[in-house]
Structures are given as structure tokens and as C-alpha cells.
Amino acid sequence: MESTAILKEWFELVDSDKIGSITAPQLKRALAVGNLEFPLSVVEQMIRMYDFDRNGAMSFEGVINLLLRCCLPFF
Fold this sequence. Notes:
Domain EF-hand: 2-37, 38-73
Helix content: 55-70%
Main location: cytoplasm
Order of helices and strands: HEHHEH
Protein name: EF-hand domain-containing protein
CATH superfamily: EF-hand
Structural class: mainly alpha
Shape: globular
CATH topology: Recoverin, domain 1
Number of domains: 1
CATH class: Mainly Alpha
Pfam families: EF-hand_7
Keywords: Calcium, Cytoplasm, Metal-binding, Repeat
């Protein structure tokens, strides 16, 4: 699916340390680029909701789940 490939490319750009997951500050910066400003505490809650292995970061799978839950109704 083309949209999955685009999201994967975005995720890899956000994952600046290339460990396969993104932290709350990384996600906050990435969302801000898209003019989506959230307090760090809100972004940390987003991470906690989809941090499936409870390591304080979100994998690509978690990002997909977050976007499907929060954004799919708008498309």
C-alpha cells in the first residue's frame, strides 16, 4: 500500500537515532512540522497508549495504530 510506504518513510525520518522507535520529543517535533502543536505531556500520553513493549518509545506499528485511531475518521 502506497500510504504505508509514505508513513514508513516519514517514520524513518522522525527516528533520527535509527533505533526503530520514536520518543515523545521526536514525535512532538515531527507533529509541529505539520503545524500540529501539542504539549509534551499530551505527546507522552500518545506514546504510552501505543508503546506496546513499554520501553518509553513507539514503534512503527504503534504509529500506524495511533494514526488509525485519531486520524482515520477525518479522511
